[in-house]
Amino acid sequence: METGNVLLASSGANVRRVEMGKNPTLIGVPIMAESVEKMVFDMNKAKASGADLVEIRLDSLNGFSPRDDLQALITRSPLPTLFTYRPKWEGGQYDGDENERLDVLRLAMELGADYIDVELQVASEFYSSINGKKPEKSKVIVSSHNYQSTPSVEALGNLVAKIQATGADIVKIATTALDITDVARVFQITVHSQVPIIGLVMGERGLISRVLCAKFGGFLTFGTLESGIVSAPGQPTINDLLNLYNFRQLGPDTKVFGIIGKPVGHSKSPILYNEAFKSVGFNGVYVHLLVDDVAKFLQTYSSCDFAGFSCTIPHKEAAVKCCDEVDPVAKSIGAVNCIIRRQIDGKLFGYNTDYVGAISAIEDGLRGKHNISSSGSSPLAGKLFVVIGAGGAGKALAYGAKVKGARVVIANRTYDRARELADTIGADALSLSDLDNFGPEDGMILANTTSIGMLPKVDETPVSKNALRNYSLVFDAVYTPKITRLLREAEESGAATVSGLEMFIGQAYEQFESTQGTISENHVKVLMRFVWSNSY
User: Fold this and answer.
1) What GO biological process terms are annotated to this protein in UniProt (predicted)?
2) Ramachandran area for residue 228 (φ above 0: left; ψ -120 to 50: alpha; else beta)
């Protein structure tokens, strides 16, 4: 089966290097409104947001008067204009006469549109109708949209050739990602294209196509004014493109990092890492990676340009088998949350930093509660430490607590899985359903490592409030929301609490140092907390 391994961007024929590390890829904002006045208002918002052009979706207008409305939109636009009049058969809203639709696009060109979008299916007809009389200023984008899948590299290459043969000034292909590895094929086509090309992959799994097109030489990407109001599935906001992903600074030499997970869109990691990269002047970008099969993903994106990954639910254990070498601690835990690709040979190294951040935060919480000095033995020594969950994070915390001298108990929905982990590290096991009645002593530690209570199911909790009276400290690995129901009820029951934010920042720092080299730990952690507090 073809995987379409992504080549280094610098090998692409059309990669255009520019000064100051900036890329020439344009950002267009789709303008979809029912009136010309609202469109003009949104066009000015797009300019203020930092857009390079506006895509005016004529098929969203009500009561469209072609000559008057086109003239108004062109003359009043503060940015270059791209006119799209998308028919229903290509995913748009227009359902009228085809000749009238093409007449409108011709008129837009005559009145001074900078770009018009013509679908491949009618491109030959359109070009025949203008008899070569295209204004010099106007550029024609010939587009093809596939809402079902992403074809093979060979099929995509043939599609691009077919679009070029129409006489297109700019080629546009938009496909749909059934798997994130589908995007690699579009990158491959983009980086080797001899003509200006827009190559985008729709859907959440295709998000990286809209960000990394700046690295691989794409002509244009789209960013919306508001989240959720999109002209195609998976479009990010222009604010995210510019301020989260630092889009203007991406280029052929930018290293790609990201968080591998499913789900993954809730993760705050890109906010922290991209701000940290920017702060220290590191040429990298960190993105969300919705991955179904971690082995297939790592095999496909095998270039050293894809330099490192954080790994979250549900891939931490499967990722161990994908690494060429695994740190002894991660091997003992049986899970990795950090994968680094060695630049000299492309080999993958797996680490586990989960337990470092979480155990340190729990120790600090106990010291604060009991006024214990930070010197000497761990405050976890001899404590009964209950871990909820037997996945990758559960394994990490159980291992970390055991190393610190705690007596560990694993509670899991599936008792057999809890028993398996308990036998591995020398702990006890029980079913999660029995946890409410488990209270052999006071002063226990509780650590939830499952997703119970995570957005959007914020009313859920893994254990009843009544059972929390036996614990002196409760930790929750969930950090969206920062204060979960479990933590709120634990505090009401008199226990000290530690949020998942502390684990998140602790492990993020360890991973950041792996990508970056030696840097002030305090500087990065303070930076990450600041970014978090201003983004949550």
Assistant:
1) chorismate biosynthetic process; shikimate metabolic process
2) left
- pLDDT digit string, tens, across residues 92-144: 999 999 999 999 999 999 999 999 999 999 999 999 999 878 898 999 999 99
The CA-atom distances, in angstroms, between 227 and each of 94, 152, 234, 496 are: 24, 31, 10, 37
Three-state DSSP at 115 gives strand
C-alpha pair distances (Å), 406 with each of 75, 443, 496: 72, 12, 18
- Give the list of residues 6+ apart from residue 230 with CB closer than 8 angstroms, or none: 30, 224
Compute the distance between CA of residue 186 and CA of residue 190 in angstroms, rounded to an integer. 6
What tens digit of pLDDT does each residue of 362-384 get?
998 999 877 776 667 899 999 99
**DSSP for 290-311, written as a single string:** E-S-HHHHHHHS-STTEEEEEE
Q: Give 428-485 pLDDT, tens digit per residue.
A: 999 999 999 999 999 999 999 999 999 889 999 999 999 999 999 999 999 888 899 9
HSE of 150, CA atoms in CB hemisphere, 13 A:
29
Furthest C-alpha separation in the chain: 88
Instruction: Indicate the helix (H) or strand (E) that contains 72.
Output: helix 66-76
In the 3-class helix/strand/coil scheme, how is 263-277 assigned residue by residue? CCCCCCHHHHHHHHH
Cα–Cα distance, 369 to 11 (Å, whole number)? 57
Reported residue count of the chain is 536
pTM of whole model > 0.85?
no
CB atoms within 10 A of CB 219: 24
| Strand-pair partners of 408 | 385
263, 502 contact by CB (below 8 A): no
Q: How far apart are CA 312 and CA 56, in angstroms?
A: 39
Q: Which residues are catalytic?
A: 145, 172, 316, 354
Residue that has been written with the tokens 């990065």 in this structure: 524
